[in-house]
Amino acid sequence: MRVLLNEVAPATAGPGREVDGPELAELYAYPEEAARRPWVRANFVTTLDGAVTGDDGRSGSINTGADRAVFSLLRALSDVIVAGAGTVRTEEYRRARTAPRWRWVRRADQAPHPVVAVVSRSARLPSSLLEPCADAGGVLLLTCRAADSEALEQARAGLGEEQVVVVDGDGVAPADVLRVLADRGLRRVLCEGGPHLLHDLAAADLLDELCLTLAPRLVAGDRLRLLAGRPIEQTFVPRLLVEADGTLAGRWLRGAFRAG
């Protein structure tokens, strides 16, 4: 990948430099602050006209080779992958496995694979997450008192009592999610959507950065946007931009952030 902008780790590679695996991993590394408190990054791919899915309603139909490389790297760097239940079902999530090419980036204080944490008001999970899977990360369900009792029972049977957390109230607030994760030592947080969950994190001022990939395509039609919900206004500033075969990827951080 070719570096266009680098204000996150200037010593690693300047504009115009081609970066390989180790350098790319350094450019996307979580800040040291993540050792002290949850650092929340979201990862999305969109087309040039803002669509987050193709005609099939899935992000996989618009991604590119460069996007897949960044996607697998970001998962490898994270402690936990957070997603809403709707996204988990639509995208047919499975337990996470660190890609072989990125296994070396896992830190000594991390498990071999990240945990998948599902935020669900109903507690309904697909069988692909409830079934045991060798050499893969665990699954954590975060739900609330409004959860369906039968779905809750199935989740506890499949995941174990300790992997099902029921918070007070009729919904799962973003602050509750991060509190539960931090209590388990899961502070390098990667949110993969969907648009409502990402909106709630941003609206609660809990989103630290957006890792956004622009696929070089136009698709038109009536597609979802990155965020869905009431209007909000926040400033995120590009600190890293890389390009490969027309795909543009980078890190947008909250405006108050300054490298170094």
Keywords summarizing the entry:
260 residues; alpha/beta; ten-stranded mixed sheet; 7 helices; 10 strands; 23% helix; Pyrimidine reductase family protein; Riboflavin_Biosynth_HTPR; oxidoreductase; DHFR-like_dom_sf; NADP
Protein described:
The chain is an alpha/beta fold and 260 residues long. The protein contains seven helices and ten strands. The protein has helices at 21-27, 65-77, 85-90, 127-130, 149-159, 174-183, 195-203; strands at residues 2-6, 39-47, 80-84, 115-119, 139-144, 164-167, 188-191, 209-215, 236-244, 247-254. It has a ten-stranded mixed beta sheet with strand order 1-9-10-8-2-7-3-4-5-6, with helices on both faces. The radius of gyration is 18 Å and the shape is globular. The mean pLDDT is 94. Residues 38-234 form the Bacterial bifunctional deaminase-reductase C-terminal domain. Pathway: Cofactor biosynthesis; riboflavin biosynthesis. It comes from Thermobifida alba (Thermomonospora alba). Keywords: NADP, Oxidoreductase. This is Pyrimidine reductase family protein.
